[in-house]
């Protein structure tokens, strides 16, 4: 933590779908010296996308949506709700599946990510502006380009299909059935900090409170504890102890890559029989992983560092503990 100036970190580890390790380290508020505790809540950044993906898969199972459904244009899910001009080339070809796999053809986060532009616009205004002003770079389905904006659109798809606000729909479809009751969409400013939420600290001149986090709901807006994420993982991990919230067929679909990128499924990076994702925002670095060896782990912090090997060091928090083979709890901390 000292090497990378990390004020607080929260770690959760499951083994055999039991919560065997749950610890918090450091301080959640530096100026007050507030000790970090396991009930602290953190912005998840891109570890939010998986909740959107699972909600889409639930709608698929309910027969309310197909992955091949078109998103924009006449007869599509969102129709012509967004945009003031005729849609650009291939926009009406974009499918739900392509948004899930980041193969929609553009709007990537490497250059001029739409989600970090025009911060005063509402979600609807931003989508309209982007459709009007940002043409696709590729034919949908032919190229992988990680897109926060694509998952923002998926949030609107969920709203259209369910008739609920995005967060309420995810609670209904995903969170409530697996016993998660304390997850919310985060606020934007320090004054918006929610109950039990940590304070975020920028590095290298970054301001963690200068962004429209609320607008990032479906791709980066959730706030949760490490235990919340650990609980989420055990209900989608294909392990046999707890019944998964999705069918085996849906899980296989979710954890299968595209022809453009075999290493990224529907909201999940894929490495053999392990599935994982990291999240990063000013003041936030997160990771969640389902491992083929029967372990899952979650790591949440209230800063991010640009020093060399920070992401690797974050990942190693689990692997160092695993290598030491600590005496894991014999009970299940989920039950406490």
TrEMBL record:
<dbReference type="InterPro" id="IPR050491">
    <property type="entry name" value="AmpC-like"/>
</dbReference>
<feature type="domain" description="Beta-lactamase-related">
    <location>
        <begin position="2"/>
        <end position="306"/>
    </location>
</feature>
<dbReference type="Pfam" id="PF00144">
    <property type="entry name" value="Beta-lactamase"/>
</dbReference>
<protein>
    <submittedName>
        <fullName>Beta-lactamase family protein</fullName>
    </submittedName>
</protein>
<dbReference type="InterPro" id="IPR001466">
    <property type="entry name" value="Beta-lactam-related"/>
</dbReference>
<dbReference type="InterPro" id="IPR012338">
    <property type="entry name" value="Beta-lactam/transpept-like"/>
</dbReference>
């Amino acid at each position: 933590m000292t090497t990378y100036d990390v004020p607080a970190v929260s770690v959760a580890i499951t083994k055999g779908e039991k919560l065997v390790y749950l610890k918090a380290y450091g301080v959640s508020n530096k100026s007050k010296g507030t000790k970090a505790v396991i009930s602290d809540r953190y912005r998840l950044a891109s570890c939010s996308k998986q909740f959107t993906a699972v909600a889409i898969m639930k709608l698929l199972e309910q027969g309310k949506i197909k992955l091949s459904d078109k998103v924009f244009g006449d007869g599509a899910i969102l129709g012509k709700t967004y945009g003031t001009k005729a849609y650009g080339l291939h926009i009406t070809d974009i499918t739900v599946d392509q948004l899930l796999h980041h193969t929609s053809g553009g709007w990537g986060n490497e250059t001029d990510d739409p989600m970090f532009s025009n911060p005063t616009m509402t979600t609807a205004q931003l989508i309209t502006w982007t459709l009007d002003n940002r043409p696709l770079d590729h034919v949908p389905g032919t190229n992988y380009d990680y897109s926060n904006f694509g998952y923002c659109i998926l949030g609107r798809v969920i709203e259209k299909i369910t008739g609920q606000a995005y967060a309420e729909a995810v609670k209904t479809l995903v969170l409530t059935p697996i016993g998660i009751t304390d997850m919310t969409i985060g606020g934007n400013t320090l004054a918006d900090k929610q109950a039990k939420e940590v304070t975020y600290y920028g590095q290298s001149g970054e301001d963690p409170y200068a962004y429209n986090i609320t607008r990032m709901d479906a791709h980066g807006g959730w706030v949760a504890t490490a235990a919340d994420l650990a609980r989420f993982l055990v209900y989608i991990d294909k392990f046999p102890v707890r019944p998964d919230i999705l069918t085996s067929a849906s899980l296989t679909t979710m954890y299968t890559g595209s022809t453009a990128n075999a290493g990224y499924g529907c909201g999940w990076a894929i490495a053999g029989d392990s599935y994982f994702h990291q999240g990063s925002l000013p003041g936030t670095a997160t990771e969640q992983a389902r491992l083929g060896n029967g372990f899952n782990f979650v790591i949440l912090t209230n800063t991010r560092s640009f020093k060399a090997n920070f992401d690797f060091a974050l990942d190693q928090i689990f692997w160092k503990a695993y290598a030491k083979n600590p005496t894991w709890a014999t009970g299940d901390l989920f039950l406490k």
